Amino acid sequence: MRRPVTVALAAALFASVLTTMSGAAELSPADFVDPLVGSAGDGNTYPGATAPFGMLAWSPTSTRGDQTSTGAANGYQYDTTRIRGFSLTHVNGAGCNPGAAGDVPILPFAGDVTSSPTADTADTVYASNFSHADEAATAGRYRLGLANGVTTDAAATERTAIATLTYPQDKPAALLFRTSNSLNGSEDAETHIDAKNREITGSVLTGAFCGRRANGGVNNRKSYYRLYFTAQFDRPVTGTGTWKDATLQPGGTDQTGGEGYATGKDRAGRGSGGYVTFAPGSEVTMRIGVSYVSLEGAERNVRAEQPEKSTVNTVAEKTGKAWNAELDRVRVSGGTANQRIVFTTALYHSLQQPSLVSDVDGRYLGMDRQVHRVERGQDAQYSNFSGWDQYRAQVQLLALLEPRVAGNFAQSLYNYAKQNDGVWDRWVHVNGATHVMTGDPSAATLATFYAMGVRNFDYRGAFDSLYKQATVPRPEGLQDGGCPGQCVGQRPNLAQYLTSHYAPHDVCHCWGGAAETLEDSVADFAIGHFAELLGRTREAAELHARGAYWRNVFNPETGYMQARNVDGSWVTPFDPASDRGFAQGSAAAYTWMVPQDVSGLAVAMGGKAAAITRLDGFFHDSSGNWQLKGGGPLKYDPTNEPDIHAPWLYNELGQPWKTQETVRQLVNSVYTTGPSGLPGNDDLGTMSAWYVFAALGIYPRTPGTGELLLSSPLFPGAVIRPAGGAPIRITTSGSGKYVQDVRRGSKPQRDWKVDASFLRGGSLDFRLSEAPTTWGS
């Protein structure tokens, strides 16, 4: 099992050799994926096995000596080399620790089970160290050799996994199901062992996404889903046992009990699970399936996705083909091996979500906690919607590459809203309305899908519902439950907003009045464009006017966005480096968050020249050196969403060459190979999607539209093959990072943007220059 380099790194070294060999066979796209990228620092990715848009993800839950916590958000941190199990569900790159899911950690244990694993609160006994030299992660497969002597090799389908566990000859062989030990805890859990039929089944009732956050997390310490699982073994079970809290029951076969949602000593020592034993030296193959509906659903998923003769190799091969099909939707040519790894891994992370939540029979758990079936014409129900993050880049990439999945996702969000009394929650985890972040990202997301040509959802019904949410106040909009980070009102204090034309900070019942105003302005512009495309002229005019409400929180005296009180006064004292009135960002960062009216923002700042000078200072220090990461709250922050579009603003300000050099600098310096390769939380593929667009030389101009901004592509060639659509080809000639000229098809492209018709197929041919040019200015 010992491997001196990861498979992905080996692929990189091999690829670098291939670049010197004319006529050599090409590696597949999946060979350039390194799932460990982003697993160190604050990337919060996980390296385990999963399929595109998969429900199940087999990946480690790490420990630093606290059974009620983990090494980092979402279960895995590269510098934490001790695990207490392999969990079945994960979320890619969520920011709050411990994040979400991490359900049913399963630990291969080489030794006798002599005490309750839950009583081992410091994970000193029932956990194992490992070395990264014994770790290999590829798209759809994950292998890890544990220091306890057990080697593991697992592959995943959409709703199932198969794992081969090889135990040492000289030690007892056990397999622990820590059923209650989800990342955030659990309300209840159940474990049932059928030794005769070589099977363990059970479920965990859990949820609590971001439930530990100081800012509003207490509001989310609740359950909203039950995950069912079935695990079947190909070797005889020689012994069984269960535990609850500190009590071990050797020979036991049934147990229940949850942990609660506290942490540390307030939760330690609580919980339940079960274990089976095998003959020493056994090589055990386990087939496991999950469902959010029922145990029968989990069993049905296994039968549908894993033929009886499945092996880890056959499942890994099939899922590898599925990943290659998705990754081949953007095939780049040229570039270095490292650039190919960064790009393809970013594409891989972008396409891990949305996540399937419906079973093979189309049933899923609704937001009303009832079982539903997908709508007529809907292929599947999807979830895990990090709306505040994703509406800025990830949903656009999804709509471009997988429009049918995007439409299914749009219908899924609409289904949840109908089950939630018409409320579109801004951060949906499985079937849970978590209320995390601010604004109305569902409006921007569905408007974007429609503008980009997605049609396989009830777009008229969805528009009517989104319009109602944006125009009809609800009582929870006057509540402070969950505030400031998880306010229950999705359009907080909407009546006052419609009166004041901004969110008054002192009565907004939101995270921050200025941030709420900016977010709602973007959302209103987006669904205003949605209305326009649907021929709803009255609503379009109304919402477009509201898209300009950002002006009401721009203070001409300070030159920054600034929160206001209900009486019209500015919230003071004011500091552009402060987050007062904002959400996870400073006034300096949020001031640029007007993608729907960049020219208007420039006028407010004193004209385009003044705006350019300020934007220059946003990306550079006082000496003119790049300041693209770690520069503090007055500078650009590539690790969070409010300002990630800022490098592209130079286009509309009349100096496109500065977009080209800034984007290229970010692509070359902030995103890298290796575990620290992401600048910050991947936020369900958002940061990765940003990179994919940037490397292609295109980027979504404004949420709710299908327009793309242009920059200089990183690779000499790229072919985008949308599912069911015509190809889009992007080529470059010449060298450098500046655009000399562009041709769209056979005609010169003199503008710095292309309209939505480009999404239906075509070509862009860039000629690059070593020096800045006036193209597009």
Automatic annotation (TrEMBL):
Keyword annotations: Signal
Organism annotation: Amycolatopsis vastitatis
Gene Ontology CC annotation, any one: cytosol
Region named Disordered: 242-267
NCBIfam families according to UniProt: aman2_put (TIGR01180)
Pfam family, one: Glyco_hydro_92
Occurrences of domain Glycosyl hydrolase family (ranges): 297-769
Domain Glycosyl hydrolase family 92 N-terminal: 32-291
Listed InterPro entries: 6-hairpin_glycosidase_sf (IPR008928), GH-type_carb-bd (IPR014718), GH92_a_mannosidase_put (IPR005887), GH92_N (IPR041371), Glyco_hydro_92 (IPR012939), PNGase (IPR050883)
PANTHER family: PEPTIDE N-GLYCANASE PNGASE -RELATED, SECRETED PROTEIN
Protein name: Alpha-mannosidase
Highest taxon of the lineage: Bacteria
Gene Ontology biological-process entries: carbohydrate metabolic process; glycoprotein catabolic process
